[in-house]
Each structure stands twice: as C-alpha cells, then as structure tokens.
Design goal:
This protein is of the alpha+beta class. It has 16 helices and twelve strands. Helix 3 links the parallel strand 1 and strand 2. It is globular. It comes from Mesorhizobium robiniae.
C-alpha cells in the first residue's frame, strides 16, 4: 500500500513539473516550515546572484523526491533537507551507489527524539523514554478517552516516521499508544492545545524548529546511540523492513545537508559550487520557521529579508 501511495504521490509530484521545465532549476517544497524556509533562501539567493528562474513543486514524499533527482531530467534538481542518519539509505543508494545524486558536505547540526511539554516533566515526572512503557503513564496522554495515549511519530513520507514505528515497538510503548502519523500542522495544533491548557503532550520532535521558540519543551532522555541497536531498513529496501529493523537507542548525531542531481553540475556549475559552500546556522533556521508559522510571514518574504541583511554570507556562498 505504501509503495502504491508513493507511486501516486510521484505522479502528483511530477504532474505540474512538465509546465515548470522551462525553469532553470526545480526544488521541492515539503510544506513544513524549516525545510520551506531553507528552500526559499536557496531559491532567492540563486535568483538574485545568478539570475536563474527557480520553480517549486509541493510534495512530502521524500523517496519520490530522491527518485526524481535520480532521473536527472530536471523534475527535481535540489533537495535541501537531507537529514542524516534518517535518509542514509537513500544516500547509500543514489549518492554512493548509482552516483546520480550528489550530497553537499556542508551540513548543519540538528537534534531529534521525543519531546514533551514541560508540565509533563514537572508535574508527572516523565523524563525518560522508558517512562512511556507504562500503561498508567500512557493514559496521561489520552485525549479521546479510548484508554490509549496519543503520540505523534511524524508525517507520512518522512523516513523518520518509519524509524519511529520501530522505536515505539522496541522501546516497549507501542501497545499503550496510538501512533499518529499526520501532517505536521495537525500535530502542531494538538501541541498548542496541550501547551495552553498545561496538559501532557508527547511526540517526535526535531531541532531546529519553531516550537522551541514558542513553547516550553523538553527532550526525553534515551539510551546513548548504539549502532548495534539502531538497525533500520526502509520499505523501499525490503518488504519485511519492520520485522528486520531493530532500534532501541537514541539517534546518532544528526546533520542536515543539501542534495542535488548530478546533472545539475553540468547545467548550472556556478549554482552547484554555491550549494557545496552553503551552510546554515540552526538558530537562524528556527527563527525563519517561527516567522513563517507564528508571525504568519510568507516564506519568500522571510528569505528575502535574511538575504538582504546578510550580504557577506551570500557573497561567500557564490564565491564573490
């Protein structure tokens, strides 16, 4: 079913691209604030510095984005939100294996795990992921009265969402929770309700993110990352990915990179040289996302304001 869904998403993704192929470069907008912000900064900088026309397509299906880059037909040229280790399987397949996609080495630091509202820690003493593997504790997160807690594990199409399904099972709390895979906006709304009511909330979270500037959140502690206890396969790699995967430790150190189709190096060498030099400050990314979500600013406007205020950074990216 998921494979069929991704195929359908691929059709939806690529449908508008035929009309956009006249553009010099095409980038995906995954419709979550941090990646949308970074995409717009790259887009506006490339248009300003190189006079390029950059078009965008909207999709949340990460494997489909990589498949489009792999084809090297201009359907998707740049993907600015490669989370490692989450997308390591895709990097292994397309960058290290096929050589059809290139990965810019300048990444920025990130963090991911489970977050709870501060009241969850202070009032209920839930501080560690092991505290979730307790049916009484799980009921604290039950908002619909079905006896199970609710935990957001990510959006459909994210590599991390599949990892979180395995982690919930192997950390021993899957049976006590409804593992919710919804659009991030739905999770944000539930977090907002809980925070304003001083209620418990738990879910997958990542930083940089606007929520850390918006609410009092705490990461749950977890066992230190252990490669032997973090073995993950994705559905595209093996139909029995869930049974063969095992994850019972924290994520490895996380970095976020830019990837681009190998053919872009020939078509737009000045742009790919800039992509290899670009680096972002995680605090800036959180601020951009905050401006988009909380201040209701257009992502395009946020990007242009930052570029105007940081001409030296942009000049370094483009080798000026």
């Amino acid at each position: 079913m998921k494979h069929l869904l991704e195929t359908a998403l691929g059709i939806l993704l690529l449908a508008p691209v035929s009309s956009a192929l006249a553009a010099d470069v095409t980038m995906p907008d995954p419709n979550y604030a941090t990646a949308t912000a970074v995409m717009n900064v790259i887009k506006n900088a490339a248009e300003q510095e190189l006079g390029l026309e950059v078009s965008t397509v909207t999709t949340t299906a990460v494997p489909v984005i990589w498949e489009a880059m792999d084809r090297n037909k201009g359907e998707v040229d740049i993907w600015p939100d490669v989370w490692l280790p989450n997308q390591q399987g895709l990097v292994d397949k397309y960058v290290k294996g096929a050589g059809t996609v290139k990965l810019a080495q300048n990444g920025y630091e990130a963090k991911q795990g489970y977050c709870v509202t501060q009241v969850t820690v202070d009032k209920h003493g839930i501080k560690d992921v092991s505290d979730l593997a307790n049916p009484d504790n799980a009921k604290l997160f039950d908002t619909n009265g079905d006896g199970k807690g609710e935990i957001w594990i990510g959006a459909s199409g994210w590599q991390s969402t599949n990892i979180e399904k395995v982690r919930a099972r192997d950390y021993g709390f899957a049976d006590f929770f409804d593992l919710q895979s919804t659009d991030e906006a739905v999770a944000a709304a539930s977090l907002d309700r809980a925070a304003k009511a001083d209620k418990p909330w738990v879910g997958y979270c990542y930083s940089p993110h606007q929520n850390f500037a918006r609410y009092k959140l705490a990461f749950l502690t977890e066992p230190k990352h252990d490669p032997a206890k973090f073995v993950i396969l994705q559905p595209s790699e093996d139909p029995q990915w869930l049974e063969k995967s095992k994850v019972s430790s924290a994520y490895a150190d996380t970095t976020v990179h830019v990837a681009y189709s190998a053919s872009l190096s020939q078509r737009q060498p000045d742009l790919t040289a800039a992509l290899d030099r670009i680096s972002f400050n995680p605090d800036d990314v959180s601020k951009w996302a905050y401006a988009i979500i909380v201040d209701k600013k257009a992502a395009d406007e946020v990007a242009k304001e930052w570029i105007k205020a940081h001409p030296d950074d942009v000049a370094k990216w483009f080798g000026h």
